[in-house]
Amino acid sequence: MIILHHLRIGRSVFTAWLIEELGLEYEAKIYVRNEMGRAPPELKGAHPLGKSPVIEHDGMTLAESGAIATYLIDLFDAENTLAPPRSDVKARAVWNQWLAYSEASAFAPFLFKLLLSREQQPHPPVISAFASGEVALQLGYIRDQLGDRPFILGDRFQAPDVGLTYILSMARRLNELDGHPTLGAYLDRNLARPAFQRAFARTGG
Ligand SMILES: N[C@@H](CCC(=O)N[C@@H](CS)C(=O)NCC(=O)O)C(=O)O
What dotted CATH number matches 2-82+195-203? Predict the structure, then answer.
């Protein structure tokens, strides 16, 4: 049995979604953010950083959404539904690139935007210029790479689409998707998947 330490309203629902896509049993331990939007101290009982998602499985505790996704797929995706087979080294490398991309390159500019949106004007010009330029760069990159394909790696939904959905849902919250109809349609397509709907209902988002 997998235990998912789930902090509400954040990226952990996307780990629940992956677990649902794999059809696995799990228990969600749910934590609620404090008035500053931060995790409660009890989450440090699951992992020293006190951040979510964290899973416990088979005597192991694991943090970091990308590492959790790779672990679950290595163990449970025997049919290669969410990843190319490991024997296809190049396809797997491209898959890994996209799996890492959401947390490694894409996330920080959106976080800056989110934090700035909570600050009063005038905003610090260096951070504002960095955030705006990088958000435009990342959204343009995802749009161009997606093209007119339904999913980021082609015709088939795979694990990197989960992380990209997280990034694009942040972009939508920040009103950054208005000029990107193909990204909006991609986001809606992913959020409509029954496994996402189940994860949302089960965890509260
Ligand atoms: N790189 C980590 C980031 C984990 C993270 O920052 N999670 C946020 C939730 S979206 C969190 O727990 N924030 C609570 C806090 O920092 O107090 C991952 O991919 O899992």
Answer: 3.40.30.10
